[in-house]
Give the backbone structure.
Amino acid sequence: MENNLREAPLEMYTAAHVEPKEINWLWYPYIPFGKLTMLMGDSGDGKSTFALNLAAILTRGDTLPFTEASSGPMNVIYINAEDDADDTVVPRFIKANGVRNRLIFINEKKQRLTFSDKRIREAIIQSHAKVCILDPLVSYLGGDVSMNLGNEVRPRLEYLIEAARDTGCAIIVVGHINKAEGMSAKNRASGSGDFIAAARSSLLIGRPPDADNPDHRVMAHSKSNLSPLGDSILFSLSGGVVDFIDTVDLTADQIVKAVGAAKPRETKQSVASRELLAMLSGGPVHQKEIMKRMDELGISKRTCELAKAKLPIECVRDGALSVWRLSDGQGNHATIQGDTPFAESPF
């Protein structure tokens, strides 16, 4: 059969014609600017609440969890097909301390949006939004597309990929995982595998295995084409508000209980707590030595401080140095051997 499609003329160029550029990050290494990120999770595990709380942080311009980076207050486009703005989204956003005039909606009363709708790109450009969240994936794929067929899914995703690339906006799509237990996290996305393949980063929200606290969740990095996988982050989810707790040694595969996944290891905060008690049991130790030991164990200063806050440890001055010591709970403290007692002024 004769091909009636007009073929584009051949155009070639070499690598010398390409100007290399660095990836810009909204939240390194989890969410890049100018790319598509998937945020996946089981129904009821809090992925939508997580996304809205992330939007609240971004509109305030606060430092993102477990980083020292902040891009300043930014506009966020929030597109949600399941919750009404007036009685659900905005009240939750207010509770999360978001800045209301920076959270932007697109009116869908006359026509429901799809990934290929030009209004998404126009809204990003006109509002100067740095982030666009679409929740959930299945509602915006389009009624004429089967989410299980890659040849139908990928062209629709390309519209989002191009919009992200051309505007520099970080586009986050929230989706469900399937019920195929035993499979790896990357294969648990509902529908075609092209959803995860098209994204440059994929995050999983789930419940930590054998969690004692029903409010606890973990965000795990299941895929990244642009960086090493980031640490998994433990957070609590209570009353629609996310409280970030610690980084943990849990993988996305462990959370979905994939076949062959290693057993969850002890959290870094637990390791830090045990190490602090061991180091201080013999007497006060200079903070510099403690941080050196934590660095050897791959434990961040923030995680160490979180562990310290839950233990009977105080920080005082020893001349020009800071010293950590155990308290017996009665105001009596050990001293470094050969030294005079510490001053009682806190560090």
Notes: The first strand starts at residue 25 and ends at 27. Residues 56 and 269 are 26 Å apart (CA to CA). The first helix runs from residue 47 to 60.
